[in-house]
Amino acid sequence: MTTPTQLLKDKVVIVTGAGGGVGKGVALEAARQGARVVVNDLGVSLNGESSGSSPAEEVVAEIKAAGGQAIADGGSVAEWESASGIVERAVSTFGRIDAVVHSAGILRDSIFHKMTPSDFETVMRVHLFGAFNMARAAAGHFREQNSGALVHMTSTAGLIGSVGQANYAAAKMGIVGLSRSISMDMARFGVRSNCIAPHAFSRMIESVPGLSPEEQERYLEKRRQTTRPEQIAPLAVFLCSDAAKDVTGQIFGARGNEVYLYNQPRPVRTLHRSEGWTPGTLAEMLVPAFQSSFTPAERTKNVLGWEAI
């Protein structure tokens, strides 16, 4: 499994949620680029229930058939002990760890007033706690070797907005803050941390709130054709490589053949009153001054209105 210019030659990469979808695409591309890959997948359905299969083993077989090196791992990212075990397994098998791509995720969609505490916590644990657990478990190894890369999957559900996904959106925005903080705390050790907001047809978009069955099928068929998981993989692999040594603390998007950079929150307007503010003076002045700069409550499809190609 060799190519003329392998960006990840001799590196060891963990990819969580790599049994299918975006994670699988990243694992396969990382192997093509010379990495030894830990293919982590719990083998669960979209809502986190056991599927009784071992998709990680299937991906490992595919990598090995192409001449690459990989091992399967069925540990949960949601618990610290298990996540730590994933990293230690990579180190004990391959001798080091160079990058972690956290792609594992589940959905428990619900309109907010019907969302249960359990559904909120379960999604947070896989996405946000999982991102922390994997990054923290790798941090000590990265510090010792003075290098390392983290790639976290965020989502436009958090960056822009989505209906019926408050748990998922909260977790994905939490990942953005986590990644930004890691990029600052770990910079002195040569460690980079970035986010990708992927648009790709995978299990994570099979559940689309607010569409009729006919509308959903038309939507999914279009997404199958124009946004494929393997189109996300090159960006993730690049961010794991030494070629991205100067890239950290950023949020990227990948949709079809497009790659884009997201802005990050900064003040856009200021309002000053020398004698200070009262609720009444704010009521009088704030809305007229700021309203033209308010961010509309738009959904992703309204903001990214052009077709993916």
Automatic annotation (TrEMBL):
Q: Which residues form the signal peptide?
A: none
Instruction: Write down the InterPro entries for this protein, in alphabetical order.
Output: KR_dom (IPR057326), NAD(P)-bd_dom_sf (IPR036291), Peroxisomal_Beta-Oxidation (IPR051687), Sc_DH/Rdtase_CS (IPR020904), SDR_fam (IPR002347)
SUPFAM superfamilies hit by this protein: NAD(P)-binding Rossmann-fold domains
Please report a single Pfam family linked to this protein. Answer: adh_short_C2
In terms of Gene3D superfamilies, this protein maps to: NAD(P)-binding Rossmann-like Domain
Q: Please state every residue range assigned to the domain named Ketoreductase.
A: 11-207
| Name the UniProt record assigns to this protein | NAD(P)-dependent dehydrogenase (Short-subunit alcohol dehydrogenase family)
Protein species of origin = Ottowia thiooxydans
